[in-house]
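This is your field. Please look over both lines of this record.
***
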Amino acid sequence: MNALLPVAVTVRAADLNDERERARLDAFVAERADGTIFHRPDWSRMVEAGCGQKPLFLVAECGGRLVGCLPLTAIRSRLFGNALVSVGFATGGGILAESAQAATRLAEAAWAAAQRERCQSVELRGGPLPEGFVARQGVYARFDRSLPGDAEALMKSLPRRQRAEVRRAQRQGLEVIAGSDSAFIDGHFRAYSEGVRNLGSPVFPRRLFQAALTLFGPDADICLARQGDAVHATMLNFYFKGACLPFWGGGTEQARVVSGNDLVWYETMRRAIARGCTRADFGRSKVGTGPWRRKQIWGFDEHPLDYRLRTVDGTRGRDINPLSAGNRLKVEAWKRMPLWAANRLGPLLARGLG
C-alpha cells in the first residue's frame, strides 16, 4: 500500500566541494536539453573564486534521484541593493527541473533563502515562471548563429561590411592567437578593461578570468587579436554541448582603427568550427546599447530574454540597466575616469552587478 504513495520532492543545498556531487550534477545538466553551462557547478565555483560570493546550489531529489537544480548567487551592492540571482555573472541559469513539483519546490526554497540572506529580490535567468514571480521582458536579448562546416563558408556567410572589416584587419598585419596561460589573461585584462571603461562599465576582477580558465580547462580559452606585441582586442570563450560561447570580450581605442574586434569575432568562430562546434552563442546584451546594435550589424539571430523576478512586497527590484535615468550619469562619469583608477575601483563595483 505504501509503495503506491507518491514520493515527495525534497530540496537541499549541494556540497560543491564534493567531487562526486559535482559529477552527478554535471551529468544531470548534460542530459537535459535545457541544461546550460551556467547550471554546471564549476560556474558557481568560478564566481566564488573570482568575486568572493559563496554559491547556494539547490538540488531537488525524489526518492534519492536528482530531479532538479537551481544555482544561486547572493549579489550584494551598496549602490544597487542585494539580490539572489540564478546565476551570478551569467546570461541564463534559471530553474532546471524534470517536473512542475520539483520546479515549485526549488522556487520556494530560493525565496526562503533570499529572506534568510536579506536579499530584496530573487532573479531567475530563464526556466519556468514560478508562482509569485513576474516575467521581466524587453531588457535583454540573446544573440546566436549556426556555424558552417569550414572557414571559407564562414567568411562567405558574414555580412558584406563585416567581411570587409575582417579582411582589412588581416591586411594590416593583425593576427589572432589563442591560449589560457597567464600571458593571455594579462592581455585579455588590458584590452577588456579599456573596452568596458569606454562603454561606461566597471571591469570584472582579473581573478574571475583566471578562475574561468582554471576550472573549465579545455572548455575555455582566450583569443587575442594583436599587432606585433600590442593586444587590441580580446574574447574569453567557453565551449559546451557543441557550441562556442564568446562571453567576455572587448577592445582598445586602437581596435576600432584596425578592425581588431571584427577580426577576433571571426577568428573565434573559425577556431570553434575547427574544434567541431556547430553554433556560436554570443550571449546577451541590453536592448538599445552599443553591444546590442553591434550584434545586430553582424547579422546574428536575436532572441528576447524573459527573466523571472520576485521582490519583497512587490517592489521593482534593483536597477542595473545603464540606459535607465538613474544610471546614465554614472555611466558617463565612468567613461571619463582614468583607466588606472577604473581598473582599481571597477572590480569592487562589478562584483555587485552580477
